[in-house]
Structure formats: C-alpha cells, structure tokens
C-alpha cells in the first residue's frame, strides 16, 4: 500500500508541475505596445500618410461603386455639383503598405461613439482627424482615449457616410423596412470587423490623454474658421474639418431643438414616448429609427448657434439639459460654460445640397459624456456659480 501511495504522489506531483508549465506567459508592455523603432520596421514596406494626404490620395469623389449595377443609395448624389455624400473607395490588398497613425480622441462608454473611433494627428500645429467605423463593442476597453495607433489600411476602404469621411469596409444596405427605404438601398461605408481591425491596428506606446489637442474657442471665433452654412463648392474643406476636437467657451443651451429645419422650444413630455421628440433632455427616443438628436447651443457675443448632437442610446440621453427640469427650460440661459466634443457636419440628402436648402443641417458638437457618465465634456455653472449637477428624467416626478 505504501508503494502505491508514493506512486500516486509522484503522478499527482508530475501533473501539477505540468499544469504550472502550461500557464500562459504574463503579457509585458512590449507584447502589447510597439515602439517607434518597431513602427519604422513595420512600415518599411510602404508609406505612412498624414490623414489629409491619405484622403487626398485614396478618397475620390465618386468612389469605386458609382457605376456598379447596384450603386450608392439614391439620395447620395448631387448631380448639380457632382458631389457624392456617400462613397466607398476600396484600397489595394497587395502592393506597398498604406499606413496612417493618430491618437484616439473618443471614448465609447457614454454611448455617443458606439462602434466608432476618431483619431487625431497634429501636423504643423493643426489638427487632422479621421473617423474609423469598427465593429467592436466597448472598444475603449482596448483602444483607450489618448492611445496612439498605427493602422495598415491595405484591403480596407475609405469613404463618406452622410459626407463624413471614414476608414471602413464596403457595405451593401438592402433594408426594405427602413424609413424611406427606396432612397437608402445601395453601397455605403460599413464597419470593419473587429478581428480584422485588431490584426492591422498597432498601439504605439501607452495611452496619454495629455497629448490630445483641443481647439478652444468661442462660437464667434469658430465661425470665422468654418462656414455657418457650407456651400457645395467648399465640401473638401468641410470634410477635413469633420472630427475636429473642440472646446466651445461661453456657451449655453437655449432650450430649443431642431424640428425638420425649424427651431422649437423643448417641452416637458416623456422622452420615451411617441411624440416626445421635443422633450427637454439630451436625446429623446426616435422610436428606434436612430437618427442623431440635437439640442441648440448659443454663445455670448453672437446670434449664431451650433447643435449639441447626441444618440438616443447614450447613457445620458434622458438627462435634463443644464437648467432644464420638470417645469420646462426657463433656466437654461442661466447656465453657462464649456461644451467639449467632436465637430461634425452631417448631410444625408444630396437634393438639399443641390438646392441649397440647408436649414436643419447645422454644424454640431458631440460630447463624449457628461459629469458622472464617461468623459466630463459639459461644464457649466449658473448665475450663482453653482455647478450643473446632471439629473435624469423621472416619469414619476411630475
């Protein structure tokens, strides 16, 4: 019995040692992040393009699919000016390497940048930015804000969705149940599959949010740099302003929203119900149609406005605007401060561009979060210097 007992100990000990030896090696910083020397080695087969040069070189106006038997969605093309609001240019899978690099400016925790990343590159002291459409849930868990990344773009595509440039893959939309479905069937930019993106995206060094550049300016200053209502003849400049990281100073919510091109006062309806689109919260329900919701920002020293754009699926979608409450929006003008976020100009109907009917297509800033939820991109105080404390709509508190 004693011999058998010792034999059992021997077998068990060998098994434990074997299991220990099979444990995966702990990751080191070198396993996850690449150095500048490694970047030089990875990109030796091709070229690293500045973001604007990348768009100039590879994103054409008409894209790859304009003559396809099933071309872009019907509402894409402005024949008057030869402009495509939707386009896809495929990039060669082989040949010299096509690389871009930039630092991530977005965070998807609060929900405004679902399956979307924006990168920033500083060239000559100025921002260049590009959206990346990628099919990754909770992408900030791996690709954090402030992380610089290098992307090999071969085999991917670059295009425009509602006039906003982005790195993507071709996607064919045949959703016959969509609103205005006949106008939306066709090719458009699609999300890069998560595994494919992880294969071609390299993280350079560790995340460093201090290296992000924010352009801090008032609304009046902003509109000396961009057109309040962009002209069809200036689309290249508009597209290259998209994705810019800005911090607007001395702004307040006016308590208004855009209703198909006209401004209306927000009301106290339930934001989760049909007819609640005017509720005095950041983004009432669209009943799952999914278009972005906008609330109006005004600034000191100007009558011009800009939209604060949010998703109805954001974690703070049903939070009251600063100064708003169950009684209405009378106190919105008393809360002033800064709104930080991503600048954009979203236009999805080419006929409106052709006829210059651009009311309702204003510039917007999309925050990455609010105090307590994600990045604290809205900071305001009232006339008594009391800070804005976010409060969620409660249907029982009426």
Protein architecture, described:
- It is built from nine helices and 24 strands.
- The strands form four sheets. Strands 1, 2, 5, 6, 7, 8, 9, 10, 11, 12, 13 and 14 form a twelve-stranded mixed β-sheet that branches. A five-stranded mixed barrel has the order 16-18-19-21-20.
- Strand 16 and strand 17 form a beta hairpin.
- The radius of gyration is 25 Å and the shape is globular.
- The termini are far apart.
- The protein folds into two domains: 183 residues, no CATH class; 183 residues, no CATH class.
- The N terminus is likely disordered.
- Helix content is 17%, strand content 32%.
- The protein has 398 residues and is of the alpha+beta class.
**Number of separate structural domains:** 2
Any idea what the radius of gyration is? 25 Å
Characterize the largest beta sheet: strand count, sense, and whether it forms a barrel: 12 strands, mixed
In percent, how helical is the residue content? 10-25%
Give the N-to-C terminal Cα separation: 80 Å
In total, how many beta strands?
A: 24
Q: Secondary-structure map with pairings?
A:
Blueprint lengths: L1 H20 L7 H4 E2 L1 H7 L3 E4 L1 H8 L18 E2 L4 E2 L2 E4 L6 E8 L11 E8 L2 E10 L12 E5 L4 E5 L2 E10 L7 H4 L1 E5 L1 E2 H7 E4 L10 E3 L1 H4 L12 H7 L3 E15 L2 E4 L27 E7 L5 E6 L25 E9 L5 H5 L9 E3 L2 E2 L2 E2 L3 E4 L17
Parallel strand pairs: 1-14, 2-6, 8-11, 8-13, 15-16, 19-21
Antiparallel strand pairs: 3-4, 5-10, 6-7, 6-9, 7-8, 9-14, 10-11, 11-12, 16-17, 16-18, 16-20, 18-19, 20-21, 20-24, 22-23
């Amino acid at each position: 019995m004693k011999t058998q007992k010792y034999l059992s100990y021997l077998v068990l000990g060998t098994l434990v040692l074997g299991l220990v030896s099979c444990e995966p090696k702990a990751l080191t910083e070198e396993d996850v992040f690449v150095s500048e020397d490694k970047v030089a080695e990875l990109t030796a087969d091709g070229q690293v393009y500045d973001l604007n040069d990348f768009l100039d070189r590879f994103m054409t106006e008409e894209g790859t699919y304009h003559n396809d038997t099933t071309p872009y969605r019907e509402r894409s093309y402005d024949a008057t000016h030869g402009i495509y609001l939707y386009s896809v240019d495929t990039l060669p899978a082989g040949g010299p390497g096509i690389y871009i690099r930039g630092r991530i400016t977005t965070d998807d925790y609060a929900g405004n940048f679902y399956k979307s990343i924006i990168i920033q590159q500083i060239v000559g002291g100025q921002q260049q930015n590009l959206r990346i459409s990628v099919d990754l849930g909770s992408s900030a868990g791996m690709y954090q804000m402030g992380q610089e990344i290098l992307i090999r773009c071969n085999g991917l595509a670059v295009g425009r969705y509602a006039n906003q440039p982005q790195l993507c893959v071709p996607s064919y939309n045949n959703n016959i149940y969509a609103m205005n479905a006949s106008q939306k069937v066709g090719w458009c930019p699609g999300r890069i599959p998560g595994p494919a993106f992880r294969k071609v995206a390299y993280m350079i060094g560790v995340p460093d949010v201090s290296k992000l550049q924010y352009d801090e300016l008032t609304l009046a200053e902003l509109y000396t740099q961009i057109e309040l209502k962009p002209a069809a003849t200036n689309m290249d400049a508009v597209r290259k302003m998209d994705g810019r990281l800005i911090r607007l100073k001395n702004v307040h919510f006016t308590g208004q929203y855009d209703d198909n091109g006209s401004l209306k006062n927000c009301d106290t309806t339930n934001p989760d119900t049909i007819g609640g689109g005017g509720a005095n919260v950041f983004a009432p329900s669209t009943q799952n149609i999914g278009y972005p919701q906008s609330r109006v920002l005004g600034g000191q020293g100007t009558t011009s406005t800009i939209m604060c754009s949010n998703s109805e699926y954001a974690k703070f979608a049903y939070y009251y605007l600063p100064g708003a409450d169950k009684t209405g929006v009378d106190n919105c003008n008393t809360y002033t401060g800064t709104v930080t976020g991503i600048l954009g100009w979203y236009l999805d109907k080419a006929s409106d561009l052709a006829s210059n009917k651009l009311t309702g297509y204003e510039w917007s800033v999309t925050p990455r979060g609010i105090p307590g939820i994600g990045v604290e991109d809205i900071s305001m105080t009232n006339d008594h210097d009391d800070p804005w404390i976010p409060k969620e709509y409660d249907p029982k508190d009426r």
